[in-house]
Write a structure and sequence with these properties.
Blueprint (H helix, E strand, L loop, with lengths): L14 E7 L17 H10 L8 E2 L5 E3 L4 E4 L7 E6 L4 E6 L6 E4 L6 E2 L3 E2 L13 E2 L16 H7 L10 E5 L4 H4 L7 E9 L5 E9 L7 H8 L25 E3 L25 H5 L11 H25 L1
Parallel strand pairs: 2-10, 3-14
Antiparallel strand pairs: 1-13, 4-7, 5-6, 5-11, 6-9, 7-8, 12-13, 12-14
Pfam family, one: Carb_anhydrase
Protein name: Putative carbonic anhydrase 3
Family: Belongs to the alpha-carbonic anhydrase family.
Amino acid sequence: MQTSHKISNQWYPKLPIPEPEVPNVLEEYEEKVPPIGTLDYIYYFSKVEGHLPTPIEVSITGSIPYKCPELKWYNFDIYPHKIKITNTGYTVLLGAKWRTERPYLEGGPLLEKHVLSQIHFHWGPNFMKGSEHSVDKRLHPGEMQYGVKADERLECVIEGFPRIIEAKTNTRIGPYPMSRIMPMFYEDYFLYWGTLTTVKGENHVIRWIVPRVILYASTEQMEQFRKLWDPWDNPNMGNFRPLQDVADRHVFFINAHWNQYNSLLPIPRLPEKSISVLSPAYQANPWMLPPQNRVSIPNEAAENNKDNNNNKENKENKGNK
């Protein structure tokens, strides 16, 4: 599953973010190229390279180092009201519903808020292929990672697979916050533009974000994906697309930080702390939080009140002096 976030074989995260449909004929863009270093410069290439096919090979070699603001993850620790996974016959689709505000991304290379829509998975017939993108000319078992031990983040999704063996079936899991299911990052990722053709023949310009951080999946976990049926009641042995030519497109390497000997970063030995934060709406209206997320709020509110009272007392003391 890549995010899509080595031990021997792997799969890593991707965040496809749709943009408007690609025109049938690529028009001539005579507008002035924005200054390098701006977000407008990145967006400019959606117009001149958005028609190019995907997925592609990404690596540090040949990429363009570029600085952006930090990518901000909002509400990914908030528990949804419910989570449903569906075997569409072609992929596993994970969708969730929140009673109030959904998780979303801001900052980084984005000019506007991008709300989480759904998560889906890619896999292959064996441990030599299955991911859509390749990194450093290496394919992986899925658009995630392969390891000796099962990954708990993936396990909370796979536990529902026995109930969706047949195509066009669904079941509920969890609920769990999205931070438990997908890795998060604010630096060290690749970005490029390209088109995605849907099964309905619709073309969309996509901003692909491929982070260096990775997850892993055990042999047993990968086998669970291959047990799911396709629309013809056969095991679905793979749903990845073939690699396309990079051509002369710009692949940006955003906010490089860690070692750059390999394009992918090693799996952390210990679980990392979530980088998700509460949105302004939740901070201003704690009542919107689901019960699972309300435990820490009273303590935080008490601390804030304590600080406010201390500040008030200090001001009064200074006034008395």
